[in-house]
Amino acid sequence: MASWNEEHKSGSMQAVSEEAKGSGAASVRSTWRSELCAKMALSSEAVIVSEACAPGKIVACNAVWSELCGYEADEAFCHTPKILQGKGTSVVKASQFADAVRSNNTYTHSEELGFATRQAVNFVKLLNYTKSGRPFVHCLKTWRTQDEDTGAEYFVTESHEEKGTAVSRAVLRSAGELASAEEKAASASNAQLAATIILPLLVAWPVLQAVACMMNSHSMPMV
Predict the structure, then answer these.
(1) Is pLDDT at 11 greater than 70 in this prediction?
(2) Of 69, 26, 21, which is closest to residue 47 (Cα–Cα)?
(3) Computed from CA positions of residues 112, 115, 120, 126, in that sequence, does the dihedral angle turn out positive or negative?
(4) Contact at 8 Å (CB) between 161 and 138?
(5) Per residue in 105-137, pLDDT tens?
(6) Cα dihedral 187→189→193→195 (10° resolution)
(7) Cβ atoms within 10 Å, residue 8
(8) pLDDT for 18-64, tens place per residue?
(9) In angstroms, rounded to a whole number, what is the distance separating the alpha carbons of residues 144 and 65?
């Protein structure tokens, strides 16, 4: 699913919230925005759309982005992508990326979602934070697009988490977040171990005791 902010107005367009497999919703709405939302809903990448003009608020996102970052659509709307930044985010790197995005005037049309030309796209890897405060290495690519119905300009950003690589560990380490991330991973691993091994043993222990008592009661007396 992909949602567009109901309070964000561009000309006379109305809000759009479309499911990828909706029953005829896309065929009823033929606007640029509904087509973009439909493509976002089908994307396996986390996708947001933000205003090209200041302050650059988020106006649309898909379910993959909400799952990755922890924010529901109505929580993200009216915030900028900076909502994901935290103590370990490189302010310099984030600022340089924002400047590069704003200065790139090459347009990519909505039908090219996921296939934007390299000249039109800006790439970066940032340490960002989910709503719960979990640090993660965020791989982003952003390009400029234009609403073909109203002429309004937006930035589309596709992203995903990079983990388990030398680069991701280096980014976490440089921000002092590697130990925290590894501790959380170890904690999750231990919890899984307890659930798959220790817990079944605890449940089976009374049965084993009962069997042992039965065997003792039927054993031959010693001479």
Answers:
(1) no
(2) 69
(3) positive
(4) yes
(5) 887 765 455 555 566 789 999 999 999 999 999
(6) 70
(7) 18
(8) 444 444 444 434 488 888 999 999 999 999 999 999 999 999 999 99
(9) 19
Residue pointed to by tokens 């991330």 = 181
Residue whose token pair is 């107005």: 9
Domains of the chain, each with CATH number or no CATH: 2-160 (3.30.450.20), 189-223 (no CATH)
Interatomic CA distance for residues 59 and 79, integer angstroms = 9
Q: Give the predicted TM-score (pTM) of the model.
A: 0.70
Judged by average pLDDT, the poorest of 82-86, 108-112, 126-130, 156-160 is 108-112
Q: Which structure tokens are listed for 94?
A: 């984030």
What is the DSSP annotation of the chain? -EEE-TT---TTPPP-EE-TT-SSHHHH--SHHHHHHHHHHH-SSEEEEEESSTT--EEEEEHHHHHHH---HHHHTTS-GGGG--TTS-HHHHHHHHHHHHH---B--GGGTT---GGG-EEEEEEEE-TT--EEEEEEEEEEEE-TTT--EEEEEEEEEE-SSHHHHHHHHHTT-HHHHHHHHHHHHHHHHIIIIIHHHHHHHHHHHHHHHHHHHTSPPP-
